Every structure is written in C-alpha cells, then in structure tokens.
C-alpha cells in the first residue's frame, strides 16, 4: 500500500464528526448581512479604484440553468429544457457586466476566470460565443498560456465540437461532475451518465491541451457500497484526471427541495460511508494522488500539489486555488465577490436579480466588510486549511499582535486536539498531523468567532 499524507482513525473521526463550514470564505456566507447593499458595493469599488490598477483580477460567472435536475444538488439552479431562457439571462448579465466593469480599472489583467452553475454548458454555441464577447469587451482578458480560465462542463452536453469551441474561446481548465458511474446510483439521483461520455469529454479536453482536468465524485449517495464505489474509483482513475474532488453527500432535504426525492432508506449507513471514505483515500493514494485537503486530491505534478508544497496554496469560493490573492469579482445570480476585504453577494432569486438590473442597480442583496479581527482569523484559517500548519510568529508579525495573548482561549480549546494526536504545538508552530488532516475543519472551527451564532444545521458534516 502506498504511503499516504493522511491517516484514517475511525474512532477519532466518529468523535469529531460534527457539522461545520468548508471555509471557502471567512467569515462564511451565513454572516453576510442585508444592511450591506448596492450602494456599499459601489462605494467599496470606487474607493479602491486607483490603488487596484496594477492588481490582477479573478472573474466568476454563474450560469444557473440545468437541462435536468440532479436530486442531490444543493446549488443555485433553474431546471429547464428551454435554452431561450439563457438569452434573457444573458441580456441582464450583459447589463450587470457593464455596470460592474465601469467600477474596475480597465487595465486590470484577468488572471483567472471561472464559469460555474448550474451547468455552463447548458448554453448553446451562439450563447457561449456571445457571453465571451461580452466579457472580452469590458475586461482585460489574457490571450496567453498564463491565463487560468476554467469552466464546469456536463459530459452529457459536452460533445467534441462544444469542447473545441470552449478551447477556442480561451478555456484551458475543465471540471466535470461524474458523482458515481454505477447505473443504479445514477438512476436514484436522476443523473444518467455512461462512463463512455465522461471518457470522451476527458479525452477531448486533453487532446486540446487542457492545463488541468478535474472530476467530481460524491460518496454517501443512495445504493452506494464500498464495493460499488471501489469500482467507480477504478474506472475514474483509469481516465487519469489531474484532480479529483470527492465530496460527502449532505442529506439536507429541509434546505434543498430536490433532495426530498431521495429515500433515506437507500442511503449508506454512517459506518458504510466511513468505509467508503477510507477506501477512497487508500485507492487514490495507491494511484499516486496527493490529498490536498477538504475532499480534494491532485497528482503530485498538478499546480495545486506544487503550490501546497511550496507554501503558495490558497482557498476561495472555487475551492483550492493558486490565485486567491486576486480580487474576485463575481457576476450572475447568487454570485459572491471579494474585493478590498469586502464580500458582496448578488440576489439569489432570478426574478429579483432581473428586477434590480431593470432599476439600473448592481444586483447586490447582502455583503460584509471584514474588520481587523476577521482578517487575522481569515489568515489563520487559510494557513491551516491549505498547509496543515500555522506559524504563530508569522501571524504575530503580520498583524502586530501577540498570538499567544490574542488567541489565549483558542489555544486552550486546541488542547484536546493535541491530546488526541491531531495537532502538535511547539515553539510557535501549530502542525496538523496526518490523522488530523481529515478533521481540519474542526481545527479551523476553533478560530471561528461566529460559529456559536450560527445554526449547525446550515453546514454539512465534516466527514
């Protein structure tokens, strides 16, 4: 068996398997408040205009439409067969792009861009061309290989000519949902996707020089067993994606209506889920993948693994990234920006999103401006999430605080983690052990000052 950089301790996992955030942001989105509206968003961008001119930019665009509804999905989406609905959406998105771009220096280079959803490949070829032309007209897009432009594709809708078009439009990173290759599981979640379609999509991306290909899998879905998921892993490993995201299915039908169509009786037991996870970690390690953290794996040569090794890995709303230092400007329904230490989220409701734009407003519905304490805690959580270690002297120096005084209570709350061998605290360093890496969310939660104010039901289990 291959030596892994993460260790599985069943008893400790059971002890600490609480609900908690994934920390794609700090504070998490549940802290955003509705007192923060469009005027504050504009004011933030305008006050930052001159000093941001040389800073690189990351763009995110949310395409909410899906052709069919996957019952497990917790994304903001609209299931429809009517592709013309996307034409209406693009009309409004273009107006938002114009309003947002007017507040951003034209010379700012877009290093990173991501299309998410929903299903971005729901868009027809003319719609995709139109959308990229809209973006190119208002932002300084890179035309060189230095760009990091990614898109989520559905292999069921990504024919070879579609992938060719995406490459021609400038995309060089591709992510695709697979979830599970077993027909029984696929039927139970209403996502029929033969492995041949996935293989074809990966092959086409690779033949067109994709920098990176990511595959999403989910464990904990109906009818999954260790044996069935082992077969799924073997078939996906054979396709050799550069990255894999293996998510824990969070069954929260009180929050996500489509999940009511999944029978709880068909879900694997908690012990079976743990067995699936343990087997997944071992099989991916044996196949040469590195555990990056929080459900993510990558080949050792992939940029994520290299950045983690070199201390340059960061985390944002797209998960692990090498570009989180960029300001993130997000457009489209429900999307979240982070610019100049300030979060702003667009309206989650499609009709309300349209209505705000009709009124000539950027469709911001809520947001949050980080204070100094937030910035300190954000960096602490970022370091732990990304590198499984924290240099307390660096934090003290960076923020002009005495870490041991500032976090005296938190250090006390870390002691049980140290007793259980999940972390070690030595000479100004907090280091997460191999068996602590799977429980990194619990360790980060110690530094989250808002957690006691939030309902645990808003978050998934950490494992």
UniProtKB/TrEMBL annotation:
Residues 51-287 form the Radical SAM core domain. GO terms for molecular function: 4 iron, 4 sulfur cluster binding; coproporphyrinogen dehydrogenase activity; coproporphyrinogen oxidase activity; metal ion binding. It comes from the Bacteria. GO terms for biological process: protoporphyrinogen IX biosynthetic process. S-adenosyl-L-methionine 2 binds at residues 72-74, 118-119, 179, 191, 216, 250. Binds 1 [4Fe-4S] cluster. The cluster is coordinated with 3 cysteines and an exchangeable S-adenosyl-L-methionine. The keyword Cell membrane does not apply. [4Fe-4S] cluster binds at residues 66, 70, 73. Involved in the heme biosynthesis. Catalyzes the anaerobic oxidative decarboxylation of propionate groups of rings A and B of coproporphyrinogen III to yield the vinyl groups in protoporphyrinogen IX. Monomer. This is Coproporphyrinogen-III oxidase.
